[in-house]
């Protein structure tokens, strides 16, 4: 019997469902890999951060790691690749909550909701400036499943969407697609620069001070991907110098964001505690992908969903 260790926390109803649906699999539910002592584990279902190189060396029977998140940058990918271990993730399940989060922040800023809320607390009745989305441009870094959904929603508001990826290939939800090599040509046109890029060797620190100097002074920069896209000091300086109007940050170099970070107190910065992907349907959607891949695992068909290329990191 195949042994599957699940350290991804799920409710009892989902545990029972897995056991009933896959009687040929022995499921062990634990808080950590160490708790299970799983030398004979064949399948590991995890958020990813608990799988270190040292622990991986102890899992001698491991054949498949199902990561219950989209990011895999904290995992020992090189060693997993060397051992030929299958790695899959749940890429795509975040697209609805993340796209709605991005849209919520944009609409909030455009319709001056933070000012309205602040004035209510002070019992101030005063008109304020506001703007609309129609006719604006959004440059979306990482136009995959999440970026495509962001683009689709923005298009409904009359926003012209430009997808920016490594290849420059055509993506859903984009009016135009460009490669990273052409990003500097399009930054001066964008009203919104939205990143949902993963953390890979190709994307780490891809944005520098020179990129922010090319942006409109009225532009809004939004990072919902990973904190190593750009040095935080670069964002701080861009905001202080008025090179951009506002930054909305859901991810940071260090999380939680240190109390001494100037970003906390900057009026033109929105600090979000890495919550854009949260949804009451997260576990359910993650398990749907796991169930599909588990059925593939038990069959002769080896066409798994969301396979990670360990050498690329995505």
TrEMBL record:
All residue ranges annotated as the D-isomer specific 2-hydroxyacid dehydrogenase NAD-binding domain in the record: 103-276
UniProt xrefs under Pfam families: 2-Hacid_dh, 2-Hacid_dh_C
Superkingdom of source: Bacteria
Listed transmembrane segments: none
Keywords per UniProt: NAD, Oxidoreductase
CDD domains assigned: 2-Hacid_dh_1
Domain D-isomer specific 2-hydroxyacid dehydrogenase catalytic: from-to ranges: 8-300
Family statement drawn from the similarity comment of this UniProt entry: Belongs to the D-isomer specific 2-hydroxyacid dehydrogenase family.
Name the UniProt record assigns to this protein: D-2-hydroxyacid dehydrogenase
Origin organism lineage: Bacteria, Bacillati, Bacillota, Bacilli, Bacillales
